[in-house]
Amino acid sequence: MLPRLRSLFRVLRARQSFEEGMSEELAFHLQQYTEELVRSGLSPQEAARRARMEFGGWNTVAEECREARGLGPWEDLQRDLRYGARLLRKTPGFTLTALLTVAICLGANLTIFSAIDSILLRPLPFPAAERLVTLYNTYPKAGVVRDGASITNYYERRGQLPALASLSIYRHGTAVVGEAEATEREETTQVSPEFFLTLGVGPAMGRTFAEEETTAGNNKVVIVSDAYWREHLQADPQVIGRQLRVDGRQKTVVGVLPPDFHFLSSAAQLYLPLATRPEDRAARLRHSGGNVTQMIARLQPEATVAQAQQQVEAQNQSLEADNPMGKLLADAGFRTVVSPLHADHVAGVRPVLLAMQAAAVGLLLIGAVNLLNLLFLRANARAKEVAVRQALGATWQHVAREVVVETGLLTVLGGALGLAVGAAGIRLLAALGTDRLPLGARMVFDLRLAAIALAGALLLGLLLAMPIAWFKLRSRLVSGMQGETRSGLSTRAAQRLRHSFVVAQIAMAMVLLAVSGLLGKSLERAMAVSPGFRPDHLLTGQIALPDNLYPDWPARLAFNQRVLDGIAQQPGMLAVGLANNIPFSGANGKSAATAKGERRAAGESPRGYDSYGVDGDYFTAMGLALRAGRFLSADDVRRDAHVCVVDEAFARQAWPAGSALGRKLFLGPTELDDAAGFTVVGVVGSVKQAGLTEDAGQGAIYTPYHLRTDPRLYVAVRTSLPPESFARVLQQAVRQADANAAVHDIRTMEDRIADSLVVRRSPAMVAGIFSAIALLLTGLGTYGVLAYAVTQRRQEIGVRMALGAAPEQIRGHFFGLTLRLLAVGTCLGLIGAVLAGKAIQAVLFQVAPLSFVILAGAAGVIGLVALVACLLPSMQAARVSPMEAFAER
Amino acid sequence: MDQTAELLPGTLDMLILKAVSLKPLHGYGVLLRIRQISGDALRIPQGSLYPALYRLEHQGLIAAEWGASENNRRAKYYTVTDAGRHRLEEETAGWNRLASAITAALNTQPEEV
């Protein structure tokens, strides 16, 4: 791009200096001549007049000089552009159709590409970001695919794996920041000291964390984001050393991050040291990551992911060699995966995005075929003109260049319009929730995208121009001069070509329709899945509680009680419960549990279960179904009763025969003393935790809140009023329970479920929009070809009618033609649809990639569109009057 | 009585080449020199001089360079290139052949037929 611009700039500069030089030279001539005339005795005025007269018109001379110097390639292009623009202006209908086709198709591609670019292509904003990796533990046979890393892992691994230049852990969370009564909840990330070193981007001001600040009690420091510094700290240049109250504790600001610091999709405003006590780093906690803490690392310049993988596995092996639980771990399929950070972060959306881009390219192909068709018709209409010009000495380069310039002009102008379409499309994508996809917030419409789009438009123009130029040159002179006005292209080959265009369009539109049908059906199926509880009239939120004010369980339970009581008094409230996790919270860590007397087959691993510590009327508030026994109550919590409720999936798995009531289970992978066991007092229906499409029957255990040793706190309120209207009440009630507490992430459960479907909904809607455009384009294309065929064959039709053919026969002929094209196109489309269905199988939910209903539906819709498109031309054909048709000759 | 002659088509280029081959000249100088060496007999339409100069320059037969004129003003000076000199020789030879043939033809007396 830049060298091109520079060369254009040089040409423009050269041209300017040429003009200046010429003016100066001509002026010099006039002056010299005038002086000579004055010397010969004329008055100065008379001399000037004579000189100008003999010289001739200045402009004429200047123009002749310019011509004499010869045209540069730039001026050639300008002339061709002017010519092309004139031709396009002469046929506004064609030009508008072509421009809109290009604009819509390129705009659609630009939209999807902007998502691909921001999410998949653009490297993470760190130096040598390709060397960043993540390490996570997996226990696939225990049903735990991803467990993050534990504190122990961190202390055991750092400095021990030679392939890694640095290694670090982080943990997302929230904190209540500010003085009492004026607190705000902020997202935070706790990090180990090497975190910023690993990323390669440090604070713009101040320092990173020191090693000693990771000791619990010694972590009274905070690094703030640039945005937080500007909004809450008045962009104070002396901010280092200022105090900030975080979760009720004074912390010293030691650093401010640079403005463009973005770690993956995190919106954290505060970075805190991930402080732990020595006992948190013990070997027995090695496998208690719980997917809360994540590990990142930077590879050594020469090291590969495979080397790091091998080293971490070797270390795992030596560490677990004398572990009594080694057998259990092996049975669970435990290993540690090293994966490139960027790819790992976006792995979930990658196939969807690629499928969308493929659909957009399909749309572009349909549009391009339409355009090609229109351009052929146009070239045909001008065949004679081209022939004459070639006879007059236009070279083939000349003709080809003109075609390229004209087509390029069309596609680049269309591409410019496409920028607007793309910009609107990107907004639409954001409205569909794409900005909540991993890295989706990076999606912007910038100069770079615009340049790529325009380059794409230019390329499209070149590709379209090639067959047109070839056709123009092939059908030159002889055929063009001898034939009738329309005969330039009306060979059988040309007709076949046009028909194959229609077939190709029908096939591609069919594929798009089938894909959007599959995605739509998947979405419908996913939405129809019951979450296992009643999501209506349910308001949920997470409560942030400064943990230093609540160091022990009695204090926390007292707070819980205040919240429950406060909310219970509110009008419109039906039931309120608290829990350390709720479905669709986004936190999906699993825990191991063991039923008493459970016999595991050799090699079978203890499974991971969803596990909830609950308080208040959690089950009633959520609307869970009671299958047997009773729910847990606030009373169980206050009594410190070792009782629990399990869901049917767990009950079925642990006690396939007989009732689960009265049985005992243990939290953890092994049986313990009976005193540590929990007695099952109830069985409830299963719920979906991570999403509606997760596997059925994950299993869940509900214990009294404080016995789950997980201090997170969610609140669920069932209301008789619209739940949104309860948000303020909820906030006030929590504030009243403690002025330092705050509720955040307040959303109705229906919103949470809808949000969890973003990855399905956006592609289904995008595919739907694409299919609609594809249908429109196919209809237009079919109409164009048939209408052209009718005008071209007017005389033939006239002869037939004169010989006694009925209008129905003529109409039938064109209908028959459409049906034949439709049949071939649909067959090809079926093949394509099956292949496309197989390709997107991974993102389908409860829909077979080969769905008869969807394929039949797609064929039906495309058939309808094609037949409607052929209606008008065939009627016109049937109305041809033999006399008029002959009179045209 | 007008003693000037109209230029034949195609001869202006030849004259320009000749003029600048004697000495580097600016445009106006070319005009004066042609007038001078043709003994004031050839009148060049001033408007067609510059397109001719530009054409010759574009063809690489003459080269142009900015310099100072006799009265110390900026002017564009033309010199003949090697290609130009070569072309001039060819054209001169061609012209001489043509001229002598035409002269001979026009001087033919009735008795010679």
For the report, how would you describe the main beta sheet of chain B? 3 strands, antiparallel
Task: Spell out the helices and strands of chain B N to C.
Answer: HEHHEEH
Alpha-beta content class of chain B: alpha+beta
As a percent range, the share of strand residues of chain A is: 5-15%
Helix content range of chain B:
40-55%
Quaternary organisation of the protein chains: heterodimer
**How far do the termini of chain B sit from each other?**
36 Å
Shape of chain A: globular
Task: Name the average pLDDT of chain B.
Answer: 84
Strand proportion of chain B: 5-15%
Number of strands of chain A: 21
Largest interface: A-B, 21 and 21 residues
Strand count, sense and closure of the main sheet of chain A?
Answer: 10 strands, mixed
The low-pLDDT segments of chain A are 477-489
Class inferred from helices and paired strands of chain A: alpha+beta
Over all CA atoms, what is the radius of gyration of chain B? 17 Å
Helix content, binned percent of chain A: 40-55%
Low-confidence segments of chain B, ≥5 residues, pLDDT <50?
none
Distance between the termini of chain A: 52 Å
